[in-house]
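User: Some background: our group keeps a shared notebook of sequences we're curious about, and every so often someone picks one and asks for a predicted structure to add to the entry. Today it's my turn. The entry only has the sequence so far, pasted here. Could you supply the structure so I can complete it?
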Amino acid sequence: TDAQLDRTDAQLDRTDAQLNKTIKKLDDIGTTLGEMGIVQGKIAEDLFYRNVRHVFGQKNMAFSDVRRNLKKKGVGEYDIVAVENDTVLVVSVKNKLERYMIDSFLNEKLPKFRQIFPQYSDFRLIGGVGALVMDDGVGRYAEKKGLYVMTQNGEGGAMLVNRTNFTAKEF
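Assistant: Of course. Here's the predicted structure to add to the notebook entry:
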């Protein structure tokens, strides 16, 4: 019995060692995937940031100031903020846009914008979303909520997918 217990203990030690190796590999994979997600997010932000003036210029909106990652440390951060005269456009950028993300932006993030950045308190506030990947239904949902909707176009740039008669909601 003692010999059998010794063999069982040795097998458990080998199993523990193998489990620890597997856990380490899974941690490494998780780290790599997280880093890829961060890079993908930066790519999406960069695409829409670089195209905001062009895309909205087609709507006769000439933004004099376009900022990326406008933030107040520990309070809030906004992906893209563009200013034209008395109007400020706040855009939330995602890799893949989902309905709950639109609701979160509208119900939690956008309402706090003027509070976090009081210098824009007298500006008309309009919103938008930009995503590399977006189902048509999700884009229409965002549009129905009064948001401008941007995605990538076939030439590697960005485009608005709102209907031609779309009017942005003021928040």
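Suggested note for the entry: DSSP finds four helices and six strands in the chain. Strands lie at 65-72, 76-84, 87-97, 124-134, 148-152, 158-160.
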